[in-house]
Amino acid sequence: MAKLFVGGLAWATNDDNLKTHFAVHGDVTEAKVITDRETGRSRGFGFVTFDDDASATAAKDALNGSELDGRTIRVDSAVERRGGSGGGGGGRGGPRGGGGNRW
Fold this sequence. Notes:
By secondary structure, this protein is α+β, with helices and mostly antiparallel strands. It contains 2 helices and 6 strands, in the order βαββαβββ.
């Protein structure tokens, strides 16, 4: 299985739209738009999981910079978030920590 990070999502994008956009490149086992716990509103990013690495690579190559629901999306390989406090107050991610595409 291979997981992709998808950034730049429109507020209106939901799990089904995300899955449909990526499914042309292989068997999507999960597509999840990340939402704010308190408001339920999209946080503007999500993750798509494929059954195999080849499909994920094809989707990443084909869909990075594509348009979904009126927004240009960014697609990259997801990096598994390790335990711990995460972030160190600066770096590429700004004041909230180390940045990267973590899940």
